Amino acid sequence: MRTPIIAGNWKMYKTRDEALQFIYAVSEQLPSSHLVESVICAPSFVLRCLVKRQGENLRIGAQNMHFEDSGAFTGEISAPMLKSIGVEYVVIGHSERRAMFNETDEAINKKLLTAFRHKITPILCIGESLAEREQDLTKAVLLRQLNADLVNITPQNAKKVVIAYEPIWAIGTGKTATVAQAEEACAFIRQTIASLYNQEVADAIRIQYGGSVKVSNIHELMGQENIDGALIGGASLVADDFLTLVKAAL
Ligand code: 13P
After folding, report:
1. Which 8-state DSSP code applies to residue 91?
2. Are 202 and 191 in contact (CB under 8 A)?
3. What is the distance of C-alpha 191 from the center of its chain?
4. In the prediction, which pLDDT does 115 show?
5. Which of 5, 6, 9, 169 to mutate to test the pocket of ligand 1 (most atoms within 8 A of CB)?
6. Which protein residue has the closest C-alpha to ligand 1 atom 7?
7. For a tag on the chain, would you pick the N or C end, based on fewer CB atoms within 10 A?
């Protein structure tokens, strides 16, 4: 049995006060993490403030980190820094970072290795562009990304990776993949994990769908065999919506 995981990715939204208001609004009402893991991935400046207020039922994650532990990398944040304030999750390889900040699969692989070295759970994002889907390259892209991103990740650690399948054309567009498209891609990811590792790892790994997930489509998505949760942008900014999304995973 895989515990469902619902994660909000706030991207570059919310001031400190807005972030705190959100946490106060949801914290009493979220279900126990034994039933569903709820995570908010917030901008770096507010992580410490949120971690101090996190409960057993809500964990705080970062949206990115550098693969080096320290160094002359202006503007970056490292795994030991995140760990030192109690951050337990990190989004790695979001398509916005791949596209706008030139993140390569090689860098993403290093970040995964670093996350495990510091016992931070990575949420690894993969997914195809619209042009790739139209050319029937979805599976080829997923295969290429999984092969490159998981180099040297041991089977024991691979079980702990959360994989977010986020078709780029569905992010922030209001255009959700159909449930059949989402399930097909997530099933393919699980099959690929079985061939890269073994069936035990494939059965344990959690796969999220991300891309215009909202209150109106979460139930159908969560009803799919290979979808264990969601990575949510826009709808995770509204406390009531986030609560409904988490409860849909129960
Ligand atoms: P939206 O839910 O706003 O489409 O964003 C998805 C996403 O990129 C989550 O990481």
Report:
1. E
2. yes
3. 19
4. 98
5. 9
6. 233
7. N
Q: Which two structure tokens, joined as six digits, stand for 17?
A: 């006060």
Return the axis-axis angle of helices 105-117 and 138-149, rounded to nearest 10°: 50
Task: Tell me if 94 sits within 8 A of 64, measured CB to CB.
Answer: yes
pLDDT at 27: 92
* Tens-digit pLDDT profile for residues 142-177: 999 999 999 999 999 999 999 999 999 999 888 778
Position 1 scores a pLDDT of: 85
Q: Residue 25: its pLDDT value, please?
A: 96
Closest-CA residue, ligand 1 atom 2, reads: 233
Instruction: Indicate which residue of 96, 132, 166, 183 is catalytic.
Output: 166
Low-confidence stretches of the chain (pLDDT < 70) are none
pTM over 0.90: yes
**Is 183 labeled as catalytic in the residue annotation?**
no
Q: What is the DSSP letter of 213?
A: -
Phi and psi, residue 177, nearest 5°: -60, 150
pLDDT at 173: 86
In CATH terms, is domain 5-248 a member of 3.20.20.70? yes
User: What are the E-state strand segments in the chain?
Assistant: 5-9, 37-41, 59-62, 89-92, 121-126, 162-165, 206-210, 229-232
209: exposed, middle or buried (C-beta count within 10 Å: 0-12, 13-18, 19+)? buried
94 is catalytic: yes
Q: What local confidence, expressed as pLDDT, does residue 6 receive?
A: 98
